[in-house]
Amino acid sequence: MKKLLVVLSVLPIFIGCKRVEKKQEITQVVEEETPKKEVPFVWEGANIYFLLTDRFNNGNPNNDVNFNRTEETAVLRGFEGGDIQGITQKIEEGYFTDLGINAIWFTPVVEQIHGATDEGTGKTYGYHGYWAKDWTAIDPNFGTKKDLEKLVKTAHSKGIRILLDVVLNHTGPVTEKDPVWPDDWVRTGPKCEFSTYENTTACTLVDNLPDILTESNEPVELPDALLAKWKEEGRLSKELDELQLFFDRTGYPRAPRYYIIKWLTDYINDLGVDGFRVDTVKHVNENAWSDLHKEANYAFDMWKKKHQDKILDDNPFYMVGEVYNYGISGGREFDFGDKKVDFFDYGFKSLINFELKHDAGSPYETIFKKYNKLLNTKLKGKSVLNYLTSHDDGAPYDKDRTKPYRAANVLLLTPGASQVYYGDETSRDLTIEGTVGDATLRSFMNWEELDSLPETQKIHKHWQKLGSFRANHPAIGAGKHKRLSKSPYVFSRTYVNGDFRDKVVVGLELPKGKKSLRVKGFFGDGTKLYDTYSETEVTVTNGKVVLDNDFDIALLELVE
């Protein structure tokens, strides 16, 4: 927007030795930025990046070896050096912002078992973060509490939310260095069979993975090994005093789950993290999740009261659950075989959707119409987190990375929240020679390929354009879908919340060269639109817009 600016200047002139001031008007034409519309953050349409802390970026090579973890492991089953500082570096560089990421979930960073174990997959350390030894400490291989505090602050400064990955279901395996927890804390059998509610919850996931007695209300004492560890670290009194305050405030019995809930919610109270991705949800009595949600909300409210200048928005604390094999078609319920449970009633705003990878080969409209209907009927007011690849799904969509553009289109344009698994945007190899099981999904991030390979850079650019469009338009993930044209395929999304209204049009599988996109009934004639993919401004004429380029996709937004 142009604006006239009149400047009154005073010029000194000299007549003889006498100084006289002469007033002079200067008119300037100044380009004034049109204020950009504030885009609200909406969890239902979030674009979440999921990474393995140890496999993403090594920000501090000095912390690569701790607790004498030097035994040789099976392929990709030891620590590789990625850490909290490495994530923060990439936030600071704008990597996530450029990708349109507005929330980051990384694998747990609490202190892991010190020893290695071999459960049929080769010698393995707890590099993945799911084998807790001490929930109150950060594992030095990942960094420090200060590192985590800096990560959260840095992310928030960029408008990015942080999801901590939390485990309540189990401890780490037992090794020579890691004794089993007392038997009033854990069960060490039977192994889960997954055919009934009982043999899915009151059991161990695998051999040698002690299962927390999360259903118990019986008070227990802290394990001697943990007390001795805290004493050696000089924080025994502090930890005991904090526990006393917690149990005095809540009135909970000192049962196993309440200790862990206290330790997990401390990270909210201390750092202001925005949400939890909750591991192994269906293996825990669902009432435990209500308890976790209640205390997480309390901690989030307390943090906001203490840090009113750092609050990002008024979104409540967010919990998304991993109910393994839950699919969106199931609506709100998960079927254990002999019992159905609605986990959305126990604190979860969203569940990870294991169904999109099966839907991804269907026509776009089939996918989008299905998800739009379910999210606006059975799941109204809730959401799902869609993914195509992950850290423990051995049968992902496009495992050989032959369809990276379609994968981006499906994941980032399907209604619901999206989970970009690290390396989806760079076609990181998921078939690593010599690996056993899910290790093949967990190679180190392929930064070198992104720096050097033109095709990788082209794929990355596509993910950036789509991700940024999604982040700028809540209508994509949280809005209502409507097909505008079958051929070429054009659809609209609309999101309305209070005074905020967001409208976009997307075209897919478009012909090369000149193409006409129908927008009649959605955008009126004379409306100026901007195709963010080709960076072209167009005007609606006779209910259509015309583009002339070699792209098979168009991302149309209103010109403000």
What is the 3D form? globular
Strand content: 15-25%
Number of helices: 15
Radius of gyration: 27 Å
CATH superfamily of the largest domain: Glycosidases
Count the domains. 2
Q: Give the terminus-to-terminus CA distance.
A: 11 Å
Beta strand count: 24
CATH topology of the largest domain: TIM Barrel
Category from helices, strands and their pairing = alpha/beta
CATH-scheme architecture of the largest domain:
Alpha-Beta Barrel
Instruction: State the share of residues found in helices, binned by percent.
Output: 25-40%
Sheet with the most strands, sense and barrel status: 8 strands, parallel, barrel
Main sheet strand line-up: 3-4-7-10-11-14-15-16
Q: What's the CATH first level of the largest domain? A: Alpha Beta
The parts where pLDDT drops under 50 for at least 5 residues are 1-9
EC number: 3.2.1.1
Protein name: Alpha-amylase
Family: Belongs to the glycosyl hydrolase 13 family.
Pfam families: Alpha-amylase
Description:
This protein is of the alpha/beta class and 560 residues long. The chain folds into two domains: 43-167 and 274-477, Glycosidases (TIM Barrel, Alpha-Beta Barrel); 480-558, Immunoglobulin-like, CATH 2.60.40. It is 27% helix and 24% strand. The protein has helices spanning 53-56, 84-92, 95-98, 145-157, 198-201, 224-232, 236-250, 256-271, 287-306, 356-359, 364-375, 404-413, 447-452, 454-472, 474-478, and strands at residues 2-15, 18-31, 47-51, 103-106, 110-112, 132-138, 161-166, 186-187, 211-212, 275-278, 318-321, 334-335, 340-341, 350-353, 383-386, 417-421, 480-485, 489-497, 500-508, 513-518, 528-531, 536-539, 544-549, 553-558. The strands form seven sheets. The protein has an eight-stranded parallel beta barrel with strand order 3-4-7-10-11-14-15-16. Helix 2 packs parallel to helix 4 and helix 12 (404-413) packs parallel to helix 14. It is globular.
